[in-house]
Design brief:
By secondary structure, the chain is an alpha/beta fold. Helices cover 39% and strands 12% of the residues. It folds into 2 domains: 135 residues, Aspartate Aminotransferase, domain 1; 251 residues, Type I PLP-dependent aspartate aminotransferase-like (Major domain) (Aspartate Aminotransferase, domain 2). α3 packs parallel to α4.
């Protein structure tokens, strides 16, 4: 009889780093230290406030440097702290449209009210885009090929429409497939088209350089690379004119009202510093474990298929379709066996609808219905991978027996 693992918390295996990566102890320490050391509001004019402000700006400058932004000198880029990637994406898209009566991009008055994005973006881009459409904007979605990468031929056809903005993610949150951001940004730069990149899943996992990529805006969130929950950033190139989407304060050059979160900024800075160290070597190590998981699962469940396997992917992400099984049932069964994973984006996890990303790829519904995302971290061990594969196959076999009764 097959063994029922019935895992306890002590032997639980966490494979949902793309939803949230558990906070790095050093980042948690940085949050605590900053909370205790700097008790004043960074916006206050007295000395304790000014001391907190200096610490906040030091964190801002270091985060910007690690992301490849130029925050000093003449015409510097800007780094705006937000509550996370979702707010950063909303500010990038909705802030660019401007206030009623104002043009979206002051430096590009000839632009049409047209946004180009892809069919596989995160909901925090798709839904603001839908809101812009309700406001009268034209929104064009680029399709993707069967491997999950955007179709550059479709993009080339749309460049001539002189859009106000292109928004393209760096890596898909479900499949891990890397998108041709550098190619798109280069072409857009030649045509004077601003480019926003949602890099939430990429930062801390692969090298990301805002200046080298020639981006106009870049979003990321600290909790995706073992920083604290509740903070993200939007990096903005110096010539881009943004308008606030919230009101009630004059913090961050009037672009994002609310008391500055120094403690979270300190934790984010610490986590990003750690994540960027030997990032390529760590990526190779994580990719080896991801590949190990895929090989074990495919060997034990031959009907399984790795989605996006033939594309360049994030080193930590594996989207496996267990053809013939129900993804929700499998994820729940795995949870009982102590393996934490997901059916896709945490923002839509639990939805009975098939993934828009899988549908855009043309994935067969029977495969999309059984698709589960496993995402690893630097701390994931080879022993955990072996054990996770055993538990995954055990759950697959049990669901198969139930299906055949």
């Amino acid at each position: 009889m097959a063994k029922h693992y019935n895992a306890s918390m002590s032997d639980a295996i966490y494979l949902d780093f793309n939803a949230t990566a558990p906070i790095l102890p050093a980042a948690a320490d940085a949050v605590r230290e900053a909370s205790l050391r700097f008790g004043a509001n960074p916006g206050s004019q007295h000395e304790p406030g000014r001391e907190a402000r200096r610490a906040l700006e030091n964190a801002r400058e270091r985060i910007g440097e690690l992301l490849g932004a130029r925050l000093g000198g003449a015409n510097p880029d800007r780094l705006i702290f937000t509550s996370g990637g979702t707010e950063a994406n909303n500010l990038a898209l909705l802030g660019l449209r401007g206030l009623p009566g104002q043009h979206a991009v002051a430096t590009l008055p000839s632009r049409t009210r047209h946004l180009i994005t892809s069919a596989i973006e995160h909901p925090s881009v798709i839904e603001p885009a839908a809101h812009l459409q309700q406001l009268g904007w034209q929104v064009s979605q680029i399709g993707v090929d069967e491997n999950g990468a955007v179709r550059l031929d479709e993009f080339d056809d749309l460049v001539g429409t002189r859009p106000s903005l292109v928004s393209l993610m760096m890596a898909n949150n479900e499949t891990g497939v890397l998108q041709p951001v550098e190619t798109v940004a280069k072409l857009c730069r030649e045509h004077g088209i601003p480019v926003h990149c949602d890099a939430a899943q990429a930062v801390g996992k692969i090298p990301v350089d805002f200046a080298r990529l020639q981006l106009s805006m870049l979003s990321c969130a600290a909790h995706k690379f073992q920083g604290p929950l509740g903070i993200g950033v939007l990096v903005v190139r110096n010539e881009i004119v943004l308008h606030p989407i919230m009101f009630g304060g004059h913090q961050q050059a009037d672009l994002r009202p609310g008391t500055d979160t120094l403690a979270l900024a300190a934790g984010m800075c610490e986590a990003l510093e750690f994540s960027c160290q030997a990032i390529e070597q760590r990526g190779r190590e994580v990719a080896e474990k991801r590949d190990q998981l895929e090989q074990l699962v495919l060997k034990g469940f031959p009907r399984a298929m790795v989605i996006g396997r033939d594309s360049s992917r994030l080193p930590n992400t594996s989207n496996i379709a267990f053809v013939g099984l129900d993804r929700q049932a499998l994820v729940m069964a795995l949870d009982l066996e102590g393996v934490a994973c997901s059916t896709g984006s945490a923002c839509s996890s639990g939805s009975s609808e098939l993934s828009p990303t899988h549908l855009a790829m043309g994935l067969d519904p029977s495969a999309a219905e059984g698709a589960v995302r496993f995402s690893l971290g630097i701390s994931t061990t080879a022993a955990e991978i072996d054990e996770a594969a055993r538990r995954i196959l055990f759950c697959c076999q049990r669901l198969e027996r139930g299906r055949n009764l």
